[in-house]
Amino acid sequence: MSLYQLQYKASNAYASQVWGAYLKFLIHPYSAIGAQINKPYFSSNVEGEWWISNARQKEVSDIFFKSNTKFDSLEIKYSVLVDVPINNPFEKISLPIELEKRILDSNSWIIDNYRFIQSNPQRPKSYVSASDCSAFYWLNEGNLLDKIICLRDQVYHYIEFASGHTNTSTCAAEIVIIKKGVCQDFTHLFLGLLRHFGVASRYTSGYLHQGTETRGASQLHAWAECHIPEIGWMGIDPTNNLLVDHHYIKICHGYDYDDCLPVSGVLNSMGNQQSTEHQVIVQQIQ
């Protein structure tokens, strides 16, 4: 097991006074993959109450914050200890190619994973058209993981990691043109391509500890999970060109970023402008 201390900080400033808030924070680690979660702590500069709920799904927990106090800024701090099982993705063995292909072509596998196979133009953040895919290729040989890794390598080299060129509303088709972005942009384009080629894949958010050279470690990170027969859901990080191991601490998964919003809810205010800053610190204790 690897023991980490996670710290998440967010500062929000509002253009006009807020006189009440009911917010949901999706920042608590995912507990269904063997992680042991201890000592969660949440604090705020605004008087209110907070609680953790896992009513939505057993493995995903939301932190709720409610306040009836007037304020023009909100600062929250969250920390937790997480024990993560050692995970070496290279120990996972794919099925023989012909057997894997039969499973991938079976109606039962398609039905079970249809939600994450389907390319949906109504969800443009992770949708690409056939013409958008023309700069990329899909291997015609090898097993599914080999093909996914080849596509991951292409996305990694296609996009320049750079902040300030995109935002949370940027769509995968725009990334094809801009060729610049951050982890959610790498992931959205990767997901669009994977689904175009028939791979069941989902957006995943979480924390990352991989040292100072790793992209995205100072913020909440994003990567993809692909469903591979007999192996199950396997994490693939196109931003860092890596397979996901025990240095990645999952929060949640969904079709795209919109299913994994770190903060959502209601603010009672006359204004609609705000500025937000986030910071993540992941320290390995042992």
What does this structure look like?
- With 286 residues, this protein is of the alpha+beta class.
- It has two domains: 2-85 and 262-284, Immunoglobulin-like (Sandwich); 89-245, C8orf32 fold, CATH 3.10.620.30.
- 20% of the residues lie in helices and 39% in strands.
- The protein is built from five helices and 14 strands.
- Strands 1, 2, 3, 4, 5, 13 and 14 form a seven-stranded antiparallel β-sheet that branches. It has a five-stranded antiparallel β-sheet with strand order 11-10-9-8-12. Strands 6-7 form a two-stranded parallel ribbon.
- Strand 10 and strand 11 (242-243) form a beta hairpin.
- It is globular.
- It starts with a strand and ends with a strand.
- The relative contact order is 0.22.
- The mean pLDDT is 91.
